[in-house]
Design a protein that fits this description.
Number of domains: 3
CATH superfamily of the largest domain: FAD/NAD(P)-binding domain
Radius of gyration: 22 Å
Largest sheet: 7 strands, mixed
Structural class: alpha/beta
Number of helices: 16
Number of strands: 24
Shape: globular
Distance between the termini: 34 Å
CATH class of the largest domain: Alpha Beta
């Protein structure tokens, strides 16, 4: 086994780890990046499946994601706007499809009024929150004691309004049932995007994509680090003391002054810490868990839905695929739809055979777009729940009461061990933007310590 010496060892070659490593290198700090997979990128993965380029992981860039936008520009990458011309579709609880424009779903006037009122109320509450300090919200403890679904049902008995507002956080973002996380966690999700209104606006949240795929960001960052990125090196043991760490992977051991764990917190327990992490971290990390979503890619010989005057944007909390979008690649004559199946629906589908699962999902897409949606030329399911080095998607969130109880300690370094990933972010939480922000933050902290 090779043994090397560096100032800092970074565990994980996703956007956070590679951003931190590049910042450290620029500051004259030597680094080694250890990555368990045989590729860089973490939850960013652009691949060719049956001749179609698919973004298997994260892919969108929002206007407020300054850290990501700056990185994309600095790397010389180009972006293009998501196709959004035409009408969106919504399927209600009785299975009725309605075409619409704008952000608010086409529901009965009384339900629409309640939805608008709830969004306004949530915006007011979000405005009281610093996404980097959600536990300081004036009602933090009370909001962390009630599930988001429970809070919504306290506000109204209109079931469709509750289902639709819950969808924006539960299915679309945290990918957990709305009874499984707190109202405070929901506010953090909205605050991380600037407002609840921003989450409702698909044209804002899913604004642009990178030509050639978003995985180019970590790929180009890794290129700059050259041989200091070690692939296929899952970290097994981390010995730490006062100002020193020794990190042992399968084929290399790194002796350094500090370590950055740039992996989801659900993976910390894959590493044996010597001595063990403090009691607080042991408790904290057990209250974080991944959500689960199947990202469905369906490629057709042409974007047929555009011929019907449809944008490709579709929503329904009552469908297996609760949302779907036109995901056609830049300059591609073929058309691509991307759909999402979250939480318990995803659980249920993975109890079926692959053929049955595909049939059910395509049937759901056909409810939005018609029977032609049942016959893609390429079909693929991104199943991050089966990825050994991720274990879910999109990111980790706290259980009921966990955010107020442990949030303030989430990013706190333990001796020479620092933590950085999108799961820990405030602004940009669970997005690539948040990962980059955390990479910059932890690198600046380490550089300040090294120079002090």
């Amino acid at each position: 086994m090779a043994e090397i010496n560096r100032d800092v060892v970074v565990v994980g070659a996703g956007a956070a780890g590679l951003t931190a490593a590049n910042d450290l290198r620029k500051a004259g700090v030597s680094v080694a990046v250890l990555e368990a997979r045989d590729r860089v990128g973490g939850r960013l993965w652009t691949d060719v499946v049956d001749g179609a380029m698919l973004e298997l992981g994260g892919q969108w860039v929002s206007p407020d994601q300054d850290a990501l936008i700056d990185t994309v520009a600095e790397l010389g990458l180009e972006t293009f706007s998501r196709y959004r011309e035409g009408e969106s579709v919504y399927i209600g609880p009785d299975g009725t499809l309605t075409r619409f424009t704008g952000d608010i779903f086409p529901v009965a006037p009384a339900t629409e009024k309640i939805m608008v009122d709830l969004i306004d109320r949530l915006d007011v509450m979000v405005a009281q929150m610093d996404p980097d300090r959600p536990w300081e919200h004036p009602d933090a403890e009370a909001l962390d004691r009630v599930s988001f679904e429970g809070w919504l049902r306290q506000q109204t008995d209109d079931a469709e309004a509750v289902d639709n507002i819950a969808l924006f956080i539960a299915g679309a973002m945290l990918t957990k049932p709305p009874h499984a996380f707190s109202a405070l966690q929901a506010l953090l999700m909205a605050a991380s995007a600037g407002s609840f209104t921003n989450l409702v606006d698909a044209d804002f949240i899913l604004d642009k994509r990178v030509v050639g795929g978003l995985q180019q960001v970590p790929l180009l960052l890794a290129e700059r680090l050259g041989d200091d990125v070690y692939l296929g090196q899952p970290v097994r043991r981390l010995e730490w003391g006062d100002g020193a760490v020794t990190v042992a992977a399968d084929g290399v051991t790194v002796h350094a002054r500090a370590a950055v764990l740039a992996v989801p917190p659900v993976l910390y327990n894959r590493v044996s810490f010597v001595p063990p992490l403090p009691r607080l971290q042991h408790q904290l990390h057990q209250h974080l868990s991944m959500g689960f979503v199947i990202k469905v890619h369906a490629v057709y010989d042409r974007p047929f839905w555009r011929e019907q005057g449809l944008s490709g944007t579709a929503f329904s909390p009552y469908e297996i695929s609760h949302e779907a979008y036109d995901n056609t690649n830049h300059g591609d004559e073929r058309g691509t739809l991307v759909g999402f199946v979250s939480d318990k629906h995803a659980d249920d589908l993975f109890r079926l055979s692959a053929a049955e699962r595909k049939e059910r999902i395509l049937e759901s897409l056909s409810h939005y777009y018609g029977d032609e949606a049942k016959s893609p030329v390429v079909y693929y399911e991104s199943d991050w729940g089966s990825e050994e080095w991720t274990r879910g998607a999109y990111a980790a969130s706290f259980d009921l009461g966990g955010l107020h109880r442990y949030g303030a300690d989430l990013r706190t370094a333990v001796g020479p061990i620092h933590f950085a990933c999108s799961d820990l972010a405030g602004a940009g939480y669970q997005h690539v933007d948040g990962a980059i922000r955390m990479g910059h933050l932890v690198a600046s902290q380490i550089v300040a310590q090294v120079r002090s």
